[in-house]
Queue: 3 jobs
Job 1
Amino acid sequence: MKLATYKDGSRDGQLVVVSRDLTQAHYASHIANRLQQVLDDWNFLSPPLQDVFDALNAGRARHAFPFDPAQCMAPLPRAFQCVSATAYTSHAELLRKAAGSAEAEDARSAGPALVQLAGDTLLGAHDPLPCAAEALGLDFGAGLAVVTGDIPQDCAADRALDGVRLLMLCNDLTLRHLQPAEGAPGSAGVQSRCATAFSPVAITPDELGEAWARGRVQLPLQCSWNGRKLGLCDAGADMAYHFGQLIALLAKTRPLRSGSLVLAGPVSNAGVEKRGLWSWPKGFNSIAEKRAMEVLQDGQAATEFMRYGDTVHIEMKNAAGHSLFGAIEQEMVPLNA
């Protein structure tokens, strides 16, 4: 099934069920008001939500209304825990190569780095991207995320994978030029991860059909910047660590509660070197990757980070060409605009 959270003036919004083709919706208030309630009591509340979903798809829902992605908050507007991983080692390797790091080839052996993100204010798919200054170097990061149920401490990766309740698209935003605060070395590393936005709709893994395999989504992720295609990377091909492994790593020393968000990092595919020149035929899902490629090819980066008025579009379609999660469509704006 597909679930979303509509804006209603509150911090947690109103849970709605969305039809498979993303055209119709139905309030779920007779079952649960918020998505966190469903996650906390999944076995009891998900079956009646499934009934509403089936009725929507069959045209039998009595109080259905047209679905509007622009009215959506993040499916889970506030999360107890939000963590980003580096599941695509090609992303880390590309950035390290461009930086001239001797450890460029060791990204896989280093394991998927985990970074704790803010979970108290998660952005909706059409929310603007406020930034205090263009000089901070705002960068987008198009990827996938999962919402978990309860995960016991030190569970195996296959058991952790069974705890995936929902999947979403995400835009993991980073301020690439943020400097550490004086007297607080290293603080910029956390503060630079300024915000995270999510697709209008969260979907259960079964909605992906055969594309959900071994903890990976075997579909291309589309990313456009100012209307121009930047990336069409395969989300499954080069995902070195699947979602079960990421969740298990996070739960190695502590249990996870339902509603934990785990992001896999920007979807990335490995490049190809020919005659000393590097190319990435499937493109990029962040500006940092494009700049890194320019450094490898030309010795310096030519592409600037986002400017006010810039837009980013992130979407994933199934084999039939139908949007699965709806699109993330955001514009960078001045902080107090």
Job 2
Amino acid sequence: MYRGFPLMSRYSIKDIFAQKPLRKKVEIRGWLKTRRDSKDFSFLEINDGSCLANLQIIAPSDLKNYTEIVLRLHTGCSLLIRGIVNESPAKGQEVELLAEELVVYGWSDPDNYPLQKKRHSFEFLRSIAHLRPRTNSIGAIARIRSSLSFGVHKFFQEQGFIHVHTPIITTSDCEGAGEIFKVTAPPKTNKDDLDDLSPDNEFFGKPASLTVSGQLQAEVYALALGRVYTFGPTFRAENSNTSRHLAEFWMVEPEIAFCDLVENRNLAESFLKYLIQYVLEHNQQDLQLFANFIDKELLKKLAAVLKSSFTHITYTEAISILAKSGKVFDFPLRWGADLQAEHERYLCEEVFANPVFVTDYPKEIKPFYMRLNDDGETVAAMDLLLPGIGEIIGGSQREERYDFLVSRMKELNLDLDDYNWYLDLRSFGTVPHSGFGLGFERFLQFVTSMNNIRDVIPFPRTPGSAPY
């Protein structure tokens, strides 16, 4: 059986701390964080990105290139080091590496390298997004993001879901809000008029856009395979330049056949708790960094979510609670208006001090595909609100009844011909089905307590800004 690519004696720093291969010769590669010189040796702090902690290297003065190389090293240099792992007498670390050979892959000019040994603001780090992964905080976010990505797949695979790759380019606006990025391309024919963007000359034969959600396409597969999920980038041309919004972000979207809103809500709660438990078990050191420097109550907050039974109220109850609170909100409050972040956070932070599901929203503020309730005024929708964030999950039971769906689409002046394939799903073996979407970056904000969503995605895209 194939067991992976052997790396001989090369270890990651994470491996060395975990395995402690004492008195064994190993090879590591990484970037220099700091150098301190003593009489007979130099202390080098090396990090390779595999974990938060640096590995201390003892570079003795009798190394053959000590004077020419070691004493010229500065923060940012990339190195290969071979040596012996020993117990460390230093406080706070169990092992260190006694260097026997040191090779420089790349030098770093100390006068121009922007990441010197000091704390930098997150605003500054966003201006050098190509270098910021080398910092402790952004490196820790990258590891947490990777771990949680795996956790997403692990949860759904363990629950019998099938992963479906939904398209990035679509001809259907799932949300119907018009906040879409149109896709243009050179005309598909060699016409003289290159400005001809009529439907006949569209690259895909009709107007297309970047997807705002994979939900509609996921429904196709859910109504054949039962349980599916998609996890990928989505795009919204919303001109909102806040700490909570991105133009490109990642969504986790499960879709389940033979599932009502209650089952959907239970799945969402289980999923969220699973991910929190997963990150607590697999990223303890990285989370501790944010507990030390960003939010002293972070670990308590995460543990509290695991132990809680999520609160459930209807939209109408939420409006009543907010109206009776006596609090003056920036955004007007009335039945029929969408809840804003300040309303959501007040409910889950001040009123309940707990995660809150809000269900049964007015149909006018929700998309066409949500199932109409018996009152004819609300739909079987749900939003999950988390303290410190507000909405983290939005979902619904989908409208499975053909006549009801057609009627709703006509109300919104949608072209039925554009959605004939979607209507077919209600004509041939329709079933109750539900799903939700979790904004991955907002969830990362929650588990790290990072204030700005731009700091939990590698390359943020926002109005007026798309470098790299």
Job 3
Amino acid sequence: MESTNRRNFIERTVLTGAGVGISGGVLKVFGHSAVNIGKKIGIIGLDTSHSVAFTKALNSPEVKDAYSGYKIVAAFPYGSREILSSSERIPGYTEEVKKYGVEIVNSISELLLKVDVIMLETNDGRLHLEQALQVIKSGKRMFIDKPVTASLADAIVLYEAAKKSGVPIFSSSSLRYITGMDDVLAGSIGNISGAETYSPAKLEKTHPDLFWYGIHGVETLFAAMGTGCKRVVRVGDENTDLVVGTWSDGKIGTFRGIRKGKADYGGTVFGDKGIKILGSYAGYNPLLEQIIHFFETGISPVKPEETLEILAFMEGADLSKANNGASVELDAVWKMALGKVSGLPER
């Protein structure tokens, strides 16, 4: 039987406001009527190639109104100041987005005065909570690039703040929309019985192992499997990770993280009517389409409890590694994270 730690938290906080709620124990996203919130997008963080890719996609002259007229009009460059591989990109990426008419501002507060919605792109997930809270206070809808935060505890605080303020937020890796996933979710292979996914899994010492890059393949796994993972086991070495998750209905999902040799994105999903080999990485546009729809409607394509469970899965994998591959219950991960949370933002 599921521990009350995770269930009580979800019912008490994340799922009882800001467009989400529990009915009969099942998560429902309450409909938000489309509102004219404006089309001006602001970016926080020019330390990732995602910022440049989104700017080119939305602001290129040939695009015109392909994305419902949304344009990136301003950006605050920072962004990581401590992770060299990220911070050294900022000057070049700043100049790149300026070519597309993006104004560079000196603070998040200045940015919020100029835009209608936000893309939080900072590569350093440790900064996301602090930066996101400023946006939430403004009431603006926000997409948060992966990872939503660098810890489950921070994510709990973030979602609680968004809930209390009634501010819709959405977070996802673009690998959720890998080629072939639409067919799987549309029922092409029947009921899903399991999945195995893989992706590069480069490490960054400032982040829990899978949070930095392995999250891409983990997101693909959860896109296929959905929520309900109960326990994880992680084995591997400096070149490879293998994380095995057991879901509450007995389904098995695995993620393989690659750090040596040919690295790519993909996977296989197993169903009672067929087996689907996922195709190539589909680029940023499928995610960008979801982001724009989210800005228009205020409805996140990914439910809060799924994003939180992805973080719990990755933290559980780290605990398993630290304990020589021992099985780790995700309820224990939730209990540890909730123990770290104090002083939730006031209503």
